[in-house]
Amino acid sequence: MASVSDTADMPTGALLQISPLVGRVLAPNPSPFTYTGTQTYLVGGSDLAVVDPGPDDADHLAALVAAVGDRPVRAILCTHTHRDHSPAAAPLSARTGAPVIGCAPLALEDDGPRADAAFDIHYSPDSIMADGDRLAGEGWTLEAVATPGHTSNHLCFALVEENALFTGDHVMGWSTSVISPPDGDMADYMRSMQRLLDRQDAVYYPAHGEPVENPRRLVRGMMGHRKQREGQILRFLERNGASEVPDMVAEMYRGVDARLHPAAGRSVLAHLIDLGGRGIAAAVGDGRWRLC
C-alpha cells in the first residue's frame, strides 16, 4: 500500500491510504472531463464503506475487491448517478454482499453535450439516504449532506471522526463543477456551496483531484468565480444585445481547451436560466438571450 508521501500521482488501481480512516483507488477513466479519473474511497478499518464505486470496469472492480480484501463492506455509497460514479455499485455489491445506499435514482436525458458521463439508468439502491442520515461502522460515521446543483440528487458524505467531507463532483480538486440543465441548477448549486461554506470541515475528498486542505477558501473562490461568470454574461448581453450561448462561450472561455467549450456552454446556460428566474435576463425564443 502506498502512502501520500510516496506519490503525488496515484497509479490506477493502487490503494493509497490518505488518512487513518480513508483510502482511495483511482479508476482507469482519465479524460479532459474527469482529470486523472474517478476516485473511489474506502472508509474505515476493520470494516468499510465504499464511496463512489466508479465506472463498471473489470480492472477497477478487481482493484476494489483486492483493496477490500477480507474486510466486511457495510455499504456502498454513491454521491450521484453519473456513469463515472455509480455503475460499479451493483457488481461490487454482488462480490461483497454489501447494500447499495446513498443518493436517489435519477436518469435524465438533457439537450446538450455533457462535461461528465451521462446518467446511470441501471442504478437501483437498496435504500436512499436523506440529508442528515447516518451510517456507522467500527470507529467511523458517515453523514449525508444534501448538495443539489451539479445534479438534483447529489449528496456529500461527512466523515464525522476526521471532520472530512467526501464531495463527489460538487467540489472537485482540479476544476469547477459543470452545471448542466435541465437537471443541473445554478441556484441550487450556489445554495449548496453556501451550505458548505457555513460548515467547518477540515478537508474535502473529491471524486476528481487531490484532497482540498483549505476547503472554505476554495468554496469562497468558486462562489466568487461563479459571480464573475455571471458578471461576464451580463456585460456581454449589455454590449451585444440578444445573443446565443456559443457566442458568449467563444469570448468568455478564450484560451480554454476547445473540447471543453460545449460543457462550458452548459454552465453558461445554467447561469442564464438562473438570471431568468431572478428577472434579470430572458430567453428570446430562438436560442438567444437578452437582458430584461
From TrEMBL:
Alphabetical list of Gene3D superfamilies matching this protein: Ribonuclease Z/Hydroxyacylglutathione hydrolase-like (3.60.15.10), Winged helix-like DNA-binding domain superfamily/Winged helix DNA-binding domain (1.10.10.10)
Domain annotation Metallo-beta-lactamase: ranges: 37-208
Family annotation (SMART domains): Lactamase_B (SM00849)
Signal peptide feature range: none
Coiled-coil stretches noted in the UniProt entry, renumbered to this chain: none
A UniProt-annotated Pfam family: Lactamase_B
Name the UniProt record assigns to this protein: Beta-lactamase
Organism (species): Sphingobium herbicidovorans (strain ATCC 700291 / DSM 11019 / CCUG 56400 / KCTC 2939 / LMG 18315 / NBRC 16415 / MH)
